[in-house]
């Protein structure tokens, strides 16, 4: 399910079946010329992943609006991330996944109230190329298996 | 309120509504006319078929095939990935099933659960379907997997729209 009118309408009466939420966690820094392109690519890649995962598990996973934060501000973001998680848990969502390519979250994993789903992703590439696409598909498959391991 | 006033208000409303209706009708007609005049301009016309796989690749075991279609959804035009489970049945006919679980829309897999090697299995809530796509009673789905319209031309399999089926 996605954060759209159509899906939320379907979600509400069926919420007992939709017990998992996926929150994409995406960093960006509009002040930095040299990070901009890379971060924009990571954002697109994150969206591709999130959409593919949601499509596979539409009836059980709710895809949250993206959580954006300024690059390298992890510590100060923790309370806000946890606030998001808390609000989702009120639904109630039983499993909360925080999906990111930012390895630095690993250090704070134990402070986060959701399961951190960190994967290396790819540093750079062309989302349209067939190599990238088959690579992403393979990775998504693995993430899907990981998610199922929690169910 | 005097009668005269009421009539004129109603007339006024009538005029405006006719105007709006006229616009709406024109808005609806214009694309229809275009459809009729130039079918080439309308890649999204209903009933369109897409080439999916060479027929010789189709076996008795369901295989997953993917293809892309352009989808115009109100304001967005986007590429959408479509998927089908395709196989030949006992009568040698090609069957193409939608992988979208009729319960809440997860993607089902063929033989993806070891306990049910001859069924489609939904990872979300354990929905199951027999090989012909009919839902197994007692599992969450209440209708069979929709089937795609199929067409074979020059040894290529083309798939069209999906059709829903009645529940088991
Ligand atoms: S979505 Fe397939 S069983 Fe619920």
TrEMBL record, chain A:
Pfam families recorded: DUF2487
InterPro entries in the record: DUF2487
Protein name: YpiF family protein
Organism: Halobacillus amylolyticus
UniProtKB/TrEMBL annotation, chain B:
InterPro entries per UniProt: Rieske_2Fe-2S, Rieske_2Fe-2S_sf, Rieske_Fe-S_prot, Rieske_Fe-S_prot_C, TAT_signal
Gene3D superfamilies registered for this protein in UniProt: Rieske [2Fe-2S] iron-sulphur domain, Single helix bin
Sections of the chain in a coiled coil: none
Pfam families cross-referenced by the UniProt entry: Rieske
Transmembrane segments: 12-33
Obligatory cofactor(s): [2Fe-2S] cluster
Protein name (database record): Ubiquinol-cytochrome c reductase iron-sulfur subunit
Organism this protein belongs to: Halobacillus amylolyticus
Source lineage: Bacteria, Bacillati, Bacillota, Bacilli, Bacillales
């Amino acid at each position: 399910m996605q954060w759209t009118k159509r899906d939320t309408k379907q979600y509400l009466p069926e919420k007992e079946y939709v017990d998992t939420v996926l929150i994409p966690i995406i960093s960006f820094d509009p002040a930095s010329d040299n990070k901009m392109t890379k971060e924009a690519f990571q954002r697109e890649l994150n969206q591709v992943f999130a959409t593919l995962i949601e499509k596979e598990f539409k009836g059980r996973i709710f895809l949250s609006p993206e959580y954006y934060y300024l690059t390298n501000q992890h510590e100060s973001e923790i309370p806000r991330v946890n606030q998001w998680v808390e609000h989702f848990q009120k639904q109630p969502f039983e499993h909360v996944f925080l999906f990111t390519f930012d390895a630095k979250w690993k250090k704070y994993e134990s402070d986060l109230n959701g399961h951190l789903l960190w994967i290396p992703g790819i540093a750079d590439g062309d989302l349209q190329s067939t190599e990238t696409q088959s690579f992403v598909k393979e990775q998504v498959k693995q993430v899907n298996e990981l998610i199922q391991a929690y169910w | 309120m005097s009668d005269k006033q009421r009539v004129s208000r109603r007339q006024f409303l009538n005029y405006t509504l006719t105007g709006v209706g006229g616009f709406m009708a024109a808005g609806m007609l214009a694309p229809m006319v275009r459809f009729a005049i130039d079918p080439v301009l309308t890649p999204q016309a209903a009933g369109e078929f897409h080439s999916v796989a060479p027929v010789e690749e189709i076996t008795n075991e369901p295989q997953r095939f993917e293809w892309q279609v352009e989808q115009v959804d109100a304001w967005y035009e986007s590429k959408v990935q479509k998927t089908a489970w395709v196989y030949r049945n006992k009568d040698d006919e090609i069957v193409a099933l939608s992988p979208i679980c009729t319960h809440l829309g997860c993607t089902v897999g063929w033989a993806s659960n070891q306990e049910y090697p001859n069924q489609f299995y939904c990872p979300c809530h354990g929905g199951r379907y027999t090989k012909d796509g009919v839902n197994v009673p007692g599992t969450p789905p209440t209708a069979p997997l929709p089937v795609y319209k199929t067409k074979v031309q020059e040894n290529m399999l083309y798939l069209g729209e999906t059709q829903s089926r009645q529940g088991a």
